[in-house]
Structure prediction request, 202 residues.
Amino acid sequence: MTRFLLIRHAAIDAHGRTLPGRMPGVHLNAQGRLQAQALAQRISGVPVSALYSSPLERAIETAEPIAKLLGLETVVSEGLLELGFGDWTGAAIEELANLEAFQRFNSFRSCAPVPGGESMLQAQARMVAALHALHARHPDAHVAVIGHGDLIKAAIAHYAGIPLDLFQRLEVSPASISVVDIDDATVRIMAVNDTAGALLRA
Prediction:
């Protein structure tokens, strides 16, 4: 059994304001750096033996204190990359909110296209495939994965049997940890959006 700690990257200035997507140069803010340090302390007692991260700076910066404290190398995985937001990348959310296509994307995630980008269904399949590849590589280990909110929610929705069109009912906050156990026969969701660490040792 692989126990995955699915960690959303820590806080950035763009959160709730713009849609950074895969833009380079988006870094943790001061709060995010503190959150990343706290994350490392929260999981310091968990026997994590492998650490993987999305290639984006905000995820790698979240992983750095964990890697340092646990003596692990951060391995970058393209499968954990943020959703490709195409033409919407870098746009202000307030402006996007008025677009019919963006409204449809948020209410019909399973099928609504992203102009010039990746569909949520494609991203979900990519994320789940990445996790199962990591399970095959680490079949009996605790693995920390630093990624992005929508991708973590999409993976949890897949394992819970929740339609993508309802996945916004799940909350995955910056610097939160969700815990999923995967083995060859079953999946168990142990925690979602843990921001205090109490459930990690359950």
The CA atoms of residues 113 and 193 lie 27 Å apart. The chain has one domain: 2-194. The chain has a mean pLDDT of 95.
